[in-house]
Amino acid sequence: MTLAVRRAALYLRSSKDRSDVSIDAQRRALHATASARGLVVVAEFADAVESGKDEDRPGFQHMLHELRSAARAWSTVLVLDTSRIARRRMISLMFESDCSKRGVALVYNNLPDHDPATDMVLRSVLQAFDEYHSLVSRAKGLAGMAENVRQGWRAGGRAPRGYRLEQVA
Fold first, then answer.
1. pTM recorded for the entire structure
2. Within its chain, how far is the Cα of 1 from the centroid?
3. Rounded CA separation 87/113 (Å)
4. Alpha helix (H) residue ranges in 3-105
């Protein structure tokens, strides 16, 4: 009797946040998970320094294209956690639905295995927190820029034409 080789794809994403988990760290963790689950990694999709607020990321789009292809060489997608797919619930839900329709298992490395009902609740809560984190971070960033302007500092970006930026001690 021959056992079918189970093939997996990895999705890796790092954001602009300096404290975010690196692509290399995600890759190591996901390869360990693949090995522990008896999966062979045959594809990798990565988006380095990309926001999870929208789906217009090259690696994510490439993964979606392959997911929808009849020639897809994998049946499982391994991802570190829910925030790597997206920071918006709607994007996450659409991706999960796409995987489900095509019989592709979506495995979040940092989530424990439970029954389907518990998994759904846990994923929903985490996806809501992912979006909440994105909205709070945006509000804090805008407030910080507004305060810089109030204090006479620049709010980011390039210096206006004819000006140059200088370090202030």
1. 0.77
2. 38
3. 22
4. 23-36, 58-67, 82-85, 89-101
Query: Strands (DSSP E) along 14-165, which ranges?
Result: 39-47, 76-79, 105-108
Q: How many CB atoms lie within 10 A of CB 8?
A: 25
Q: Give Dmax over CA atoms of the chain in angstroms.
A: 75
Q: Where are the domains of the chain?
A: 6-150
Handedness of CA 147, 159, 19, 57 (dihedral sign): positive
Q: CA of 40: how far to CAs of 12, 72, 80, 121, 144, in Å?
A: 16, 14, 17, 29, 46
Q: What does the DSSP 8-state code read for residue 8?
A: E
The dotted CATH code for 6-150 is 3.40.50.1390
Condensed to tens digits (0 to 9), the pLDDT of residues 93-134 reads 999 999 999 999 999 998 877 778 878 888 878 787 777 776
% helix / strand / coil in the chain, to the nearest 5? 45, 15, 40
β-sheet with 105-108: strand ranges across: 39-47, 6-13, 76-79, 105-108
